[in-house]
């Protein structure tokens, strides 16, 4: 024998309040929504039918009255008293797109704040009015009622502890929050809270008024004055609305909350999946007829339509940006100043954005700040450093050799530069290595080199302890006595060795396998064009040579922003004290 499930309503209400809805306040939204659906159903049959929803509060009691389609006694049994039964699905059980509701559970949210729900309804079909009283314990009764006109009134009395949700101010605020854009007359205590329509509607407002309304709207609901306003329209999702461009930089990792209305009823103030991740510089307010809500009706349901809508909205924002390049470059520059990180992130995936960055975004170079487009037209090849430290170490010396270099060390810059061949396949892009500089330096004449051999041997001996090779070259600028050059593999080996010294035996053994004898040791390049270096080279006393070379080494590390290891710090200290001592040896003591 088949039996019917028994449902414990208290268990269901507990489930709704603790696991589905974020706050009891949703009861008002669910009741408004039912009223809206009832009015919509009546209007479908009669376009001229009244479309009014009135909310009233007296003490602990709230009523919501609609001029909707109403229910017959039979429908009351079937729809109000059956959990999960909804009149808003078609024969196949799919949500009918003209209605907000679909799950057949919304009315139960009234039990979040009341023990009893009273529904007084009269169907449009002319049958007698009915009263239904449902209780949180799962029982209901039904009886005849007095009602002249078709429609429904739902009445709730606050349960002890839930009175705050019935306070006139709270009710007005919530009704306005959920329903201010509804296309029907909605009143609370007789005062209209709807009717103005969406602020982005296109109508015959005076020129400039629409924009002023939109800016005011952003200030009211989002709390900022937008940098710009972008109209949005995605017909397949029945979506219209606006994206407000933030007037301040936003954190790319933080998902901005968008305000989403479904059929003019607020769904959420914090939808995070509406725009592509890169579009973090915009906050949207949209109304969508075809996007689906989750069962809690507090978020968007993730489906194919949401995915394609997100893509289409991304296109709108991209189109706006590209449009600015043509119509208002000054405005574009201001936008880029604020949102450079977002746009650069975008340029990593999108060729059009790459072009935008190349054309408009200034970068740091050793020949002044300029866009990549300017740099390319002036210097052809694009040489860049991977880090800002590399840039600082090499910028001045490279400039003196006639080499223009872009600092690729800021977030995304080196990746963007490396992608330049995508927009111009003939473009040569090269990372500048310290060793590239070496090839530009002049060798000293062989006779001089031979003459200075004893000095170089002594100098090398003092640098062996630091794993550094001493080299003599002539280069510009002559004012720079010394340069410390580390190429990528030497930097890696140096780091490996310093880690090996610090870790336990087992791990040090593993690291040793990667430790190659370095033929690419860091180089201390002495500049023979520098007068001081010439004097140092003429020194023959090994102790003085060591002191001078160690001091130059220390200076090269500091000038080039190189990391200072413990051995370097010790050497810096020693050479400083040595220099001081030398100075004092030569000083004439004060006479008494
Ligand atoms: N004000 C009303 N006027 C006419 N019918 C109503 C009204 N309120 C509720 N109903 C009927 O009761 C049914 C159940 O309502 P309920 O709010 O529980 O679910 P729903 O609106 O269908 O779906 P959802 O759970 O998605 O809100 C509705 O489908 C509708 O037929």
From TrEMBL:
Any Pfam family the entry gives: HATPase_c_3
Keyword set includes Nucleotide-binding: yes
Gene Ontology MF terms in the entry: ATP binding; ATP hydrolysis activity; ATP-dependent protein folding chaperone; unfolded protein binding
Domain of life: Bacteria
InterPro entries cross-referenced by the UniProt entry: HATPase_C_sf, Hsp90_fam, Hsp90_N, Ribosomal_Su5_D2-typ_SF
Signal peptide per UniProt: none
UniProt keyword Chaperone present: yes
Alphabetical keyword list: ATP-binding, Chaperone, Nucleotide-binding
PANTHER family per UniProt: HEAT SHOCK PROTEIN 90 FAMILY MEMBER
Family recorded in the similarity comment: Belongs to the heat shock protein 90 family.
NCBIfam families according to UniProt: PRK14083.1
Protein name: Molecular chaperone HtpG
């Amino acid at each position: 024998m088949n039996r019917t499930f028994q449902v414990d309503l208290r268990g269901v209400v507990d489930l709704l309040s603790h696991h589905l809805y974020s706050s009891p306040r949703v009861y008002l939204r669910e009741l408004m929504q039912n009223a809206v659906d009832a009015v919509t159903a009546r209007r479908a049959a009669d376009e001229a039918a009244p479309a009014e929803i009135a909310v009233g509060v007296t003490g602990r009691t709230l009523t919501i009255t609609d001029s909707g389609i109403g229910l017959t006694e039979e429908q009351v049994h079937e729809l109000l008293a059956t959990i999960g039964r909804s009149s808003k699905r078609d024969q196949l059980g799919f949500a009918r797109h003209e209605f907000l509701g679909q799950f057949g559970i919304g009315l139960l949210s009234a039990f979040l704040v009341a023990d009893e729900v009273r529904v007084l309804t009269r169907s449009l079909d002319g049958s007698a009015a009915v009263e239904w009283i449902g209780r949180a314990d799962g029982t209901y009764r039904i009886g005849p009622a007095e009602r002249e006109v078709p429609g429904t009134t739902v009445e709730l009395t606050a349960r002890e502890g839930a009175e705050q949700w019935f306070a006139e101010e709270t009710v007005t605020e919530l009704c306005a929050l959920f329903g201010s854009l509804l296309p029907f007359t909605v009143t609370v205590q007789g005062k209209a809270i709807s009717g103005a329509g969406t602020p982005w509607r296109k109508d015959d407002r005076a020129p400039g008024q629409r924009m002023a309304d939109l800016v005011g709207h952003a200030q009211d609901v989002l709390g900022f004055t937008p940098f710009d306003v972008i109209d949005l329209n995605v017909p397949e999702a029945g979506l219209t609305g606006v994206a407000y461009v933030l007037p301040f930089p936003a954190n790319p990792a933080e998902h901005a909350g968008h305000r989403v209305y479904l059929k003019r009823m607020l769904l959420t103030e914090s939808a995070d999946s509406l725009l592509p991740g890169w579009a973090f510089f915009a906050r949207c307010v949209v109304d969508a007829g075809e996007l689906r809500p989750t069962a809690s009706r507090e978020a968007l349901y993730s489906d194919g339509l949401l995915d394609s809508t997100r893509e289409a909205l991304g296109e709108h924002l991209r189109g706006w940006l590209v449009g600015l390049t043509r119509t208002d470059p000054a405005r574009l520059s201001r936008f880029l100043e604020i949102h450079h990180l977002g746009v650069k992130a975008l340029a990593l995936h999108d060729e059009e954005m790459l072009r935008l960055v190349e054309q408009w975004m200034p970068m740091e170079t050793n020949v002044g700040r300029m866009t990549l487009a300017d740099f390319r037209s002036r210097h052809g090849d694009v040489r860049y450093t991977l880090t800002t430290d590399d840039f600082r170490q090499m910028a001045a010396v490279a400039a003196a050799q006639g080499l223009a270099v872009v600092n690729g060390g800021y977030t995304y810059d080196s990746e963007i530069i490396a992608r330049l061949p995508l927009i111009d396949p003939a473009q040569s892009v090269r990372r500048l290595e310290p060793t590239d500089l070496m090839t530009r330096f002049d060798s000293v004449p062989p006779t001089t080199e031979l003459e200075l051999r004893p000095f170089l041997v002594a100098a090398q001996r003092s640098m062996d302890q630091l794993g550094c090779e001493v080299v003599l070259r002539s280069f510009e600028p002559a004012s720079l006595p010394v340069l410390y050059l580390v190429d990528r593999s030497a930097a890696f080996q140096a780091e490996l060795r310093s880690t090996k010294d610090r870790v336990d035996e087992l791990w040090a053994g593993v690291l040793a396998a990667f430790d190659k004898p370095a033929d690419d040791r860091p180089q201390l390049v002495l500049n023979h064009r520098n007068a001081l270096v010439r004097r140092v080279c003429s020194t023959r006393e090994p102790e003085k040579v060591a002191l001078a070379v160690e001091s130059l080494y220390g200076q090269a590390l500091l000038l080039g922003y190189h990391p200072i290891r413990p051995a370097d710090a010790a050497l810096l200290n020693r050479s400083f004290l040595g220099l001081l001592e030398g100075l004092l040896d030569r000083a004439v003591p004060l006479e008494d």
